[in-house]
Amino acid sequence: MKLLLATNHLGLGGSESYLLTVAEQLDRLGHEVAIYAPEPGEGAGIAREMGIPVLDEGGLGGLDGDYDASLVQDAGVSLQIADRCPGLPQLFVAHSAKFDLQAPPQLDGVVSKIVALNDRVAQRMRSYSSKVDVVRLRQPIDIERFAPRGELPERPRTALLLSNTPSEDRLEMLRRACVTVGLELARLGGPSGHATDVRPAIAAADVVIGYGRSILEGMAMGRAAFVYDWKGGNGWVTAETYEAIEADGIAGGAAVDAIGIDRLGEQLRRYVPSMGPINHDLVAMHHRANVHAQELVALFDVLAQPSPHPRGPLQEMARLVRLEWRSRLENFGLAHENAQLRQRLRESEAQAAAAREQAAHQEERVEDLRQSFESSASWRLTRPVRALARLRKRFARRRDS
Questions:
Q1: So what's the pLDDT on residue 256?
Q2: For 150-164, what is the mean pLDDT?
Q3: Strands of 113-116's sheet, edge to edge?
Q4: First-to-last CA distance in the chain?
């Protein structure tokens, strides 16, 4: 199929990350994919690096392409595509129950079907006046890219707040709570800056704090995950809490009580290292991106008409080359990370060897001083005094017994 994926702004937020993940997975399945973004941000560069064409306002002519179906994420692009591509089926992916700009247009016939990524948003979508079938799917995570990076320690040392949105009062509460439990808190996102690849920051942390996709990415990499952000928090994701937290969209709304500094500290102390492998298994079980793409294709098959233009051999060759290129880039990144770890290991071994050598040198100095002192004239002259002192101690012990 020839598919058009659309979002108003293609930056580095959660919904944009979703779109890029889906675009890559659909491309891997052999579908021809293009992204339309009137406001291309940093995410546009990532898409182009993957070989996915990006259309902006200057490329509106691309909307006249012979697409089979579209995936849209907000009302603005939904209406633009309805205007430029009349009759093109739209699969609307809803990411928010709060922001009206990310709600489907309330015009009959514009949106063909809605995908909701949690129960809370699904309930909101079903309450709109324009009745469209709502399908509940789960957030997709590429578990090949977001793979575990080693086991967790017995006691956590570092925490990463991975979020664009925490309010300053909640951020200060989190800082103080981390201090009370001995956690060093780092932050990525918002005023602290962004990264096109968050994996190194996640790998360097024992605990990932945030909400939504950031939590799932941390879980996929085998980190302990603590849900806390601008709307509150749910605490640790565990095998027991996962279902309720996921149904709420990992957004902090499943808590039944208020969370202050004392409560935050109390919850943070409940960390256990087994959270790492359990979290990875939960993501692998419920959130694999390749499975999500297959579910989307099944929905597109229902909505779209068969394409009149079959995929040509050169297009397929280009797709295979893109896959090889991505694989090589990923291998290069892993090789670079491995080289850095090896260098750190060599430095640690060198420091340990230097410490052992220094300790041995100190022992030699102590032995030299002892021998020098015992061979001195004062040591020999005071020998009777030391013998008398030993006799006094012996008699004292006998008397006491």
A1: 47
A2: 91
A3: 54-55, 32-36, 2-6, 69-72, 90-94, 113-116, 134-136
A4: 97
Q: What does the DSSP 8-state code read for residue 152?
A: P
What value, to the nearest 5°, has the Cα angle with vertex 207 and ends 204 and 213? 95
Q: Computed from CA positions of residues 7, 8, 12, 14, in that sequence, does the dihedral angle turn out positive or negative?
A: negative
Pairing outcome for strands 39-40 and 69-72: unpaired
| 170-187 pLDDT per residue, tens | 888 889 999 999 999 999
pLDDT of residue 171: 84
Write out the E strands in 76-231.
90-94, 113-116, 134-136, 158-162, 184-188, 207-210, 224-229
CB pairs under 8 A, 24+ apart, for 367-376?
A: none
Which tokens hold the place of 209? 């704090």
Please report the pLDDT score of residue 319 as a whole number.
59
- Residue 167 tokens read as 């309010």
> Rounded CA gap, 2 and 68, in Å?
5
Supply the DSSP string of 207-262, one letter for each residue.
EEEESTHHHHHHHHTT-EEEEEETTEEEEE--TTTHHHHHHTTSSSTT-SS---HH
Give the β-pairing of 224-229 and 232-236.
antiparallel
Predicted TM-score (pTM) of the model is 0.76
CB under 8 A, 24+ apart: contacts of 264-270: 264/173, 264/174, 264/177, 264/228, 264/233, 265/177, 265/180, 265/181, 267/226, 267/235, 267/236, 268/177, 268/178, 268/181, 268/183, 268/207, 268/226, 269/181, 270/235, 270/236
Q: Would the pLDDT of 240 be above 90?
A: yes
Say which range, 9-23, 72-86, 234-248, 306-320, has the weakest mean pLDDT.
306-320
CA–CA dist 225, 206 (Å, integer): 9
The reported pLDDT for the residue numbered 310 is 59
